[in-house]
Structure formats: C-alpha cells, structure tokens
Design goal:
The radius of gyration is 24 Å and the shape is globular. The chain is an alpha+beta fold. It has two helices and 16 strands. The termini are far apart. It has one domain: Cupredoxins -  blue copper proteins (Immunoglobulin-like).
Length: 260
C-alpha cells in the first residue's frame, strides 16, 4: 500500500476541516429559535360544573406535563431538522411511578419501558391509543413498544394501582411538554401556519379542543400567546386493573395483636 506524503496528508486534513466548517456554518444559518408557549391552568370554578369528588392532589402552582404540538397546514413545506444519534425514548418504572409521567412522541417511534425498581411490574394500556400488555417483568429488564399511530395511551401497572402515566403520539415533529411553570419549548419549527393542539391529563376533551387554535410562526413571532386549560373538577386517578376489576388490596402480613 502506498503511503501518503506529509504534504498530501495536510491537504486532505485541510479539506476535511473545511467541509466540517461548511456543514457547521450551514447548520448555524438554518437553525431557528424555539417556539415558546406558556400554559396556564384555569380554576375549575370558572366552569360552573358540579364537583362529584375532590380533585386528586397536585402541588399548587404545578403546571407540568401538559403537551403542546403544532401541526402544519402545509405538510409539503420545509421538513424538520433530522437529528441523528438520539437515544430511544424511555418511560422507566421507578419508585412505583412512571418517569416521565407524560411522554410525547411522533407516530412510528418505539419506546423502551425499563424496570428500575427492585420488584416486578406489569405495564399495560387498554384505552384509546396503543393497546398492549407487557406482562410481568423483573427488575433490571426492559421491554419495547412501537407506537405506530396518533393517540393517547394511558399507562398503568397491573400490580401497583398508584402508578399512572401517558404516552401522547402525534403526527408532527413539532411538540413539547410543559415544565412546572407551564413553559413549553418547541425546537426546529419552520415559519408558517399551524394548528396548535393541547393535552392535559386533568382536562375534559371538549375543554382541550376549545384551548386549541391556529397560530402563525415567523421570525418575529416565536413566542405565542398563553394557552389556558380548564382543570376538570371531577378528575380522579382511580382506575381498574387490566381485567376491568378493582385492584386487590395487599394482604396484611402483620399479625394482629389483641390488647389484654
């Protein structure tokens, strides 16, 4: 094999450096600031709806886990930036909870469900979106579900009734989830007209539909007007197991003590 001389090697390295610099410069030119949306939770008193039972507890001022996605009115427009090397999304079982509580993904995305607890879990979803039952699987193991169509998949564990979560599958690459302050950041959104959609676990479908609207994204408009969602006064985390039955309370293994 013929070895390259020093001058030839320097020339090749210089060309490679120029190519990398050109790609970086092109990416910098095409990068756009994220679209920012602030979500506000409206008091259920504004709905004038009767309250059948107390709303499940949530920290006051916590506006997290609200999903926002933007669907273009011109799907043939500029595509979103393709970011290679991203890890597969995960919803872990940890401390008898789903982490994250709400995950938003584009249709066609596989999601891993690793068990990081030191005991068995049985994750299932039998409503609306992707229907699946992962069965029992032990600590340290993981299973994968392919979410192939838009919809809301509510997550539960057939062993632990306190566990709940959701995977929101959308038909657009432009989406985000709110932090505790209600702030949502959506990256790589090209200029254009979009349908803004919102999902919140504690809102009714009709209220979520009313919260959506048409928005226009441009160089000068990348911070949108606040989105207000109405909290359902009758929301509850109670649910049945995968057989449609009530969960069986854990057996009391502590021997009874009779006072003398």
């Amino acid at each position: 094999m013929q070895m390259l001389g020093p001058a030839r090697q320097i020339a090749i390295f210089s060309l490679a450096a120029l190519a990398l610099f050109g790609a970086w410069a092109l990416l910098a030119q095409t990068a756009v600031p994220p679209v920012i949306v602030k979500v506000e939770i409206v008091s259920p008193e504004a709905t004038k709806k009767p309250v059948a039972k107390p709303v499940a507890a949530k920290d006051a001022g916590d506006a997290s886990n609200i999903a926002i996605w933007l669907k273009s009115f011109n799907p043939a427009g500029p595509p979103a930036a393709v970011l290679a090397g991203h890890a597969m999304p995960q919803v872990a079982q940890s401390n008898k909870s789903f982490d994250p509580h709400v995950l938003v993904i584009e249709a066609g995305t596989p999601v891993q469900f690793p068990n990081r607890d030191p005991f068995l879990h049985n994750v299932f979803s039998l409503f609306e979106g992707k229907r699946f039952d992962l069965g029992f699987y032990e600590a340290g193991s993981s299973k994968t579900v392919h979410f192939d169509r838009p919809g809301v998949s509510f997550l539960f564990c057939n062993i632990h009734p306190e566990m709940s979560g959701a995977v929101i599958v959308v038909d657009t690459p432009y989406f985000g989830t709110s932090d505790r302050t209600g702030r949502v950041s959506i990256a790589n959104v090209p200029d254009g007209r979009y349908e803004l959609n919102v999902w919140y676990e504690r809102s009714l479908p009709e209220d979520l539909k009313a919260a959506g609207r048409t928005v226009t994204i441009s160089d000068s408009t990348r911070t949108l007007e606040p989105v207000r969602v109405v909290e359902n006064p009758n929301f509850t985390l109670e649910h049945k197991n995968k057989y449609g039955q009530d969960y069986i309370p854990p057996a009391n293994t502590t021997p009874a003590y009779n006072h003398p």
